[in-house]
Here is the input.
Amino acid sequence: MTDHEHRRTFGPTRAMARRRFLQGLPAVAAAAWIGLDTPAEAATPSDGGPLPAIQLGSHRISRLVVGSNPILGYSYLGPHTDRHMKEYFTTERTVEFLQQCEREGITAHQFSTVDQRVDSLRLLRERGSKMLFICLHADRGKIKTAIELTGPIAMVHHGGVTDRFFAEGQFGRVHDYVKAVHDHGVLAGVSAHNPDCIKRIADEGWEVDLFMTCFYFVTRKITPGKDEVPTLEISYPFFKDDPLRMTEVVRQVKQPCLGFKILAAGRRCASQQTVREAFQFAFSHIKPTDGVIVGMYPRFFDEVHANAGYTRELGRIST
Here is the structure.
C-alpha cells in the first residue's frame, strides 16, 4: 500500500505520528518545535465523492459544517493556543483552508464576528467558491448589515448570549431576534450550550428553522459544595456526560440541529481513534436530519481530509 493509500484509510503516516508527538507537548513547545511559519500539508482534491447531506430550508448542505473558532483564535485551551491559531489563520490561509474544505465535499461554513470575517469571505467568493454560510450573531440592530456583507443562508442567535438571556429571564430578546431574522428573509436559528434552552424553545413552538446545540454545557456555573476542594476558577467545564443530555434533547426536537464542540474543543483529540469515536458518537446520537459543526486547525495534520472521511464513513444516512 502506498503512503497516499495509507492516508485515505487514516493509517499511521508520518503526519499522524507527528501529530501524536505534538499533542504530548504544551502548545508553545509544539509551536517552537515545528516553527511558526511551517505551512500545512498540501491538500489534494478528494476523490471520495459527496459527503452525506441534510436539508436547511431550501438549502442542501453537507452533514459536516466547518466551524470558525480556530480561525478566530478561540481555542478554549488558553491564550498561548489562541495566539498560535490567530497567527496561523491569516486571510490568505483562511481562504485556502476553506477552499480545501470545499474540495473535500464540505459545502457550508459557520462563522461569527462579522467584522473580522468579511475580508476572507469576500475573497473566497471572488475565487469562485459556492460554499454556503451560516452566521452566528446576536445584535438585532445589525442583522441587515451582516446579511448584506456576508450573504448567509441562516442567522443563528449566539449560544453564549442565549444562555445568559435565558438565565436572566429575558427569553423575549432571543425570540425577537428570531422574528427579526425572518423579517429579512433568512433562515433563523438559535444556538445554546444549555439543553434546557433548546427544550424550552421547542416546547413553546417558536418559529425556529434550526438549532445549534453544544455537546458541552460550558456556560454552566460551578458552585463547589462544602466538602469539595477549592479550585481556581474553571472557565470552561467539559463534563463527560453532557453530550448524552444534549443529544437526548436534539432527538426530541423536530428542527434540524447542528451539534458543535463534538471534540470538546480539542479535548477528544488525543489520537485519531479518539476523534473517530467522537464522530461515531455524534452521528449515532443525533437525528438523520442533523449535522455537526467542527472547527479544524490543519497546521500539523490534514484534519480536513480526516474529518471528511469520518463523515463519509459514519454519517451516511440510511434510506
Notes: The longest strand covers residues 132-137.
